[in-house]
Amino acid sequence: MPLADSLRAVFGLLARLVLAFVLAGSAVLKLASPGSSRAALATFDLEDERLRWIGWAILVATELGLAAAIVAGVEGAEWLAAALMAMFAAALVGAIMRGRAGAPCACFGSRSTVGWGSVARNLALAACFAALPFLPERSLSTDEWLGLGLVVALLACVGLVIAVLALAREVGMLRLRLGPSSALEIAEEGPALGEPTGLARSFGRIAETGMGLAVFTSEGCRVCHGLRPAVATLSDSPVIDVAVFDEVAEHEVWSELGVPGSPFAIAVDPEGAVLAKGTFNNLAQLESVIATAERRRAEEAVSA
Q: Does residue 170 carry a pLDDT above 80?
């Protein structure tokens, strides 16, 4: 067979594999996020939960079945896949006409949304599936299969590199959203470091533990409510005594110490001198106040 015919045959096989992979990938993404995928079917007027379950299962089974049939070369599978993509495009157009542009469609994962771009994508896929029967087909030789496998392996490596880079970016964005791992300590907020306070009188075990942690909360603070179990856990610690000061009930203490807001924490020694302070939003940041206080107390002991 001439080289040109061989290349066309390889191209036809690659096109078949790629399009089958697109179908299988769509089904796998639906399986990876079943809840959001089923919920997205409400965009297409499937309000009943049972109907969404049935529709979701039919879509996944159809996409996987057509992908397998296309790879196996089953006659007519390409036309059925083209019809499925055209049906998806029509459903998306109907949703746009009903004013649901931007709503989730879960076509390719939970982030897919209704829009003209999604319509164009499905129409393009329909055209590609419809073109498959017109591409040349033949059985490949062993050398050709090896070459094809090498190309697929290289493409997989490139995809893996892209996936790792994307994952690294997502991790970085997550770290930015989570914020710093230590409490925000601003010199002008709250009592000055080393300043003696009357907080020592509010602790019952500070002479035994050697350190007290004053936690300032308010009733309207949602973060404070979420952190109550964590603060309660710290209260059972044998190495630190914890006291909670409500913004209303202990308003005088708040005013005296110049607490800027909640949640806020101040670590003091048995004499009530401030060792560390700061605004926190999670347990790790609250624990950082304790860690900073312990570090400063150790540094003072060494310098003394």
A: no
